[in-house]
Write a structure and sequence with these properties.
Elements: E1 7-10, H1 12-25, H2 30-45, H3 56-64, E2 75-79, E3 83-87, H4 93-108, E4 114-121, H5 128-135, E5 139-145, E6 167-171, E7 179-183, H6 190-199, E8 208-209, H7 219-224, E9 226-227, H8 233-247, E10 271-279, H9 286-301, H10 317-329, E11 331-334, H11 335-347, E12 357-359
Helix pairs in contact: 1-2, 4-5
Length: 361
């Protein structure tokens, strides 16, 4: 690739160690620090840069300002045989999310459907990370969360009252990667706009509007305005539905109760999540399921290609192979994000990993 030094390539292990060290410096125990770091870097490896290390500085700031609890001990508030409500103790969202999905898998036992609702948590990164935990155990996994910022208006409104409320569904398969839907309910995740703002690059006109309600390609102005829902009123209805699923069963924050992750350091965010597990074996023999979903994948990938297409990809397929390639060659992040990581590291005397290369990624 031609060099323009807009992106840098870092060794994956070195980046994970750097993130872990910063979490430790902010008071997070070693095991939780490593878990949170690994899940952050995993998002970058998959090419989901909006939920990768670009978020680390704000997480560290919230930890050091006591807006998040570095030594959280999530606890079960309510439990039946196959459902639970988990209080995240204002912990790191990635750590709370893993604990909640582990609890759902434990209750399921590979035989029953199980759901865990979460309150008193924080921004948990990429939703697919948790849904894939279930897929790896032979279950269809569900992961829903409410956003950490209200930056979408109800359809027809002029005041932000909703997040873009991401969710993920992961299907186990007999091939090397699960089929994974992981999406926000906005045209683009706000994290992508954050990355563009840090990098100084314009955004597509349909991603967001400025504070005046006019579509903008300026990411800085977009961050002052509102993200656009996918498919207009359908996207608004979808983001509200995911928000309700993420908050109503656990009593987590919704609507006017939601605080701003980047601006309010006084109050816990009380972010809500919902995790679900549907074991394939509870519905049919795994062999029959594998044959059926393999045929479904062949049907999809075997359709006649459009004139400008070279291959049909299943949901999650490109992300899987991006992870394999970047784990081998190094993970690419923007030079602007690398510089910000360096600034955060210097606050704690931690040196950011040096680039293996500068590329036009």
């Amino acid at each position: 690739m031609a060099s323009d030094e807009r992106h840098v390539v870092l060794e994956t292990a070195a980046l994970e160690d750097f993130c872990t060290t910063l979490y430790r410096a902010a008071g997070v125990p070693e095991a939780d620090a490593r878990l949170a770091a690994t899940s952050l870097v995993e998002a970058d490896l998959r090419g989901v840069y909006s939920h990768g290390v670009v978020r680390l500085p704000i997480y560290i700031e919230r930890l050091t300002k006591n807006a998040m609890n570095p030594v959280a001990a999530p606890k079960v508030q309510r439990k039946t045989r196959t459902t639970a409500v988990l209080d995240g103790d204002n912990g790191i969202g990635h750590v709370v999310g893993v604990r909640a999905m582990e609890l759902a898998l434990e209750m399921s036992g590979g035989e029953e459907c199980a759901f865990v609702a979460v309150n008193n948590s924080n921004h948990y990164g990429a939703a697919a990370y948790f849904a894939e935990m279930a897929a790896a155990q032979g279950a269809i996994g569900f992961s829903y969360t409410i956003g950490g910022i209200n930056h979408m208006t109800p359809w027809g409104g002029a005041e932000a009252m909703l997040g873009n409320n991401p969710f993920a569904v992961a299907f186990p398969t007999p091939f090397e990667f699960p089929i994974v839907l992981d999406m926000a309910c906005s045209v683009a995740a706000r994290g992508k706009i954050i990355v563009a703002a840090k990098d100084g690059t314009p955004i597509p006109e349909d991603w967001a509007v400025g504070p005046d309600g006019v579509p903008t390609t300026d990411p800085v102005r977009a961050l002052q305005g509102f993200v656009q829902p996918i498919a207009g009123p359908k996207g608004y209805a979808l983001t509200m539905t995911v928000g309700l699923l993420s908050s109503m069963l656990s009593g987590a924050a919704f609507g006017t109760e939601v605080t701003h992750m980047y601006e309010d350091f006084e109050r816990p965010q009380d972010i809500g999540h919902l995790f679900g597990v549907l074991p394939v074996s509870a519905f049919q023999d795994r062999g029959d399921y594998d044959a059926h979903i393999a045929k479904a994948a062949r049907d999809i990938k075997g359709v006649k290609l459009a004139a400008d297409a070279s291959e049909i990809f299943l949901p999650g397929e490109r992300e899987y192979f991006a992870k394999i390639r970047q784990r081998r060659e190094g993970v690419a992040i923007t030079a602007a994000v690398h510089a910000e990581l360096g600034d955060t590291g210097r606050l704690f005397g931690v040196e950011v990993p040096q680039p293996l290369a500068h590329v036009n990624a």
